[in-house]
Amino acid sequence: MKMKLSSLHHGSTASLSLPGFIIFFINLPIHNLESAQFTVIGPNQPVTAIVGEDIVLSCHLSPPMSAENMEVRWFRSHYSFLVHRYRDGKDQTENQMPEYTGRTEFLKDGIRNGSVALRLHNIRPTDEGRYVCYFESTSFYKDAHMELKVAALGAAPLISVEGYQDGGIRVVCRSAGWYPEPEVFWRGLTGQHVPLLSERKFQGANGLFETETSIIITETSNQNISCSIRSTLLKQEKESRIYVAELFFPKKSPWIAILCTILLIQLFFIGLLIYRLKTKEMKAAEYRWRDCLTEAERVTLDPNTANPYLIISTDGKRVRLEGTDQELLANHEGFSYSPCVLASEGFTSGRHYWGVEVGSKGGWAVGVARESVRRKEGVVMLNPEEGIWAVERQWWGQFWALTSPMTRLSLSRKPEKIRVSLDYEEGLVEFFNADNVKPFYAFPLASFTGEKIFPFFRVGGAGAQLRLCP
Fold first, then answer.
1. Pairing state between β 141-151 and 47-50
2. Which of 101, 188, 440, 460 could bridge 363 with an S-S bond, Cβ 3.0-4.6 Å?
3. Rounded to an integer, what distance in angstroms lies between the CA atom of residue 150 and that of residue 127?
4. Measured distance CA(406)–CA(384) in Å, rounded
């Protein structure tokens, strides 16, 4: 069977067989697909944008063809990091990265020739980086990569004189609003570089850099100096200059040595005066202690109340902890289980005080106790409920008031001599450091209910020893 078809080439006619007709239509889509291939071309050099201004990123198709029915997408390093999207003849920014919301504008005046551009408004330092211009047709896609550099030219340097340092004058240069991190130079009048004393650069919340550098200038160095801050990307710099007159530099004078000598002499006499005052104060404190003790009760220790492990001196003034034999332990009438002892003298009225040298070793407790305090029925609990009002030093050095529960005492000065004061009618028991007029602890008011009250002592720990004064 023969068919006649008009040739598409050169307007000629030819007779084709049926197989030839089929082959022609099979090859036709392939020809159209090949004709739809393209290349995307963008800037071959990095594009530089200024912070706060706008920038246009452009790209186009080669060979030129209409992109009206294509998808055009701008994204960052990954396909999902969408900057702007054009599809179906309109902008689609629903999935746009939040930082680009309201800041992108798709320019499509030349879209019929495959030329498009993206305008970014109000450039920020975070916009810097790689961008991809992507085209996609129904049968083909291609993209082009481009680099965006961001720069900001900061404020002119502010130079200030901060004061005297290291025999010269410290001068500081400050500036803000730079991107990327700038270079800072100090130069003399002839352009030579001046060495830095310090340099500090930091990036603010807006992504821009601030700088602060300082130098020391002396009378013999160049007093006419400038501070220059240079953008490494824009190759531009801003400069400020200052001149420090000789009048402001410190002058050396023989009077300085004289004044220093006078100052040293004054410091010597002031130190001597302070030493003498402290010595006088210490002696006065000692006199106050002695004067106080001359009117104190002449208290002695009662061996009949002492724990058998306590050794009391023959004059009844000293007591220490030491071992004893079982026979004495079985026959004694004093404290059985606690290393305690009472004084021979008790009080049923009036105000009384006595002194005790407690030293700085071992553990001890001093205070007052009721006559009826338990002595033989187990370990004595040292608290007011048991009829004892006392303070103690534990063997590792901590001080406590034996309340219930105990109260820790924070003493700035560790006492070695203690004055115990008893006011029977007021129910007041106070404890004084030897040379202080104020007590370091006072028990809340107690009621002694007509019972005789005795000075109370406990000795515990190696090296501990108590001595009554006088």
1. parallel
2. 460
3. 7
4. 11
Cα–Cα distance measured from residue 268 to residue 395, given in angstroms and rounded to the nearest whole number: 42
* SS3 state at 26: helix
Residues near 233 by beta carbon (within 8 Å), at least 6 away in sequence: 48, 149, 151, 180
Query: Would you say 341 and 447 are in contact if contact means Cβ atoms under 8 Å apart?
Result: no
Phi, psi of 178 (to 5 degrees): -105, 150
Among residues 399, 401, 382, 392, the alpha carbon closest in space to that of 460 is found at 392
Tens digits of residue pLDDT in 352-377:
989 999 877 788 999 999 988 877 66
Interatomic CA distance for residues 291 and 166, integer angstroms:
57
- C-alpha–C-alpha distance, residues 278 and 435, integer Å: 13
Helix (H, G, I), strand (E, B) or coil at 23: helix
Which tokens sit at 11?
């307007």
Are 49 and 150 in contact by the 8 Å Cβ rule? The answer is: yes
- Predicted TM-score (pTM) of this structure: 0.46
Q: Which of 391, 469, 383 is nearest to 430 (CA)?
A: 391
Query: Distances from the Cα of 85 to the Cαs of 71, 105, 218, in angstroms?
Result: 7, 10, 62
Q: Cis peptide leading into 98, omega within 30 of 0?
A: no
Q: Are 256 and 268 in contact (CB under 8 A)?
A: no
d(CA 371, CA 390): 15
Work out the average pLDDT over 33-54: 86
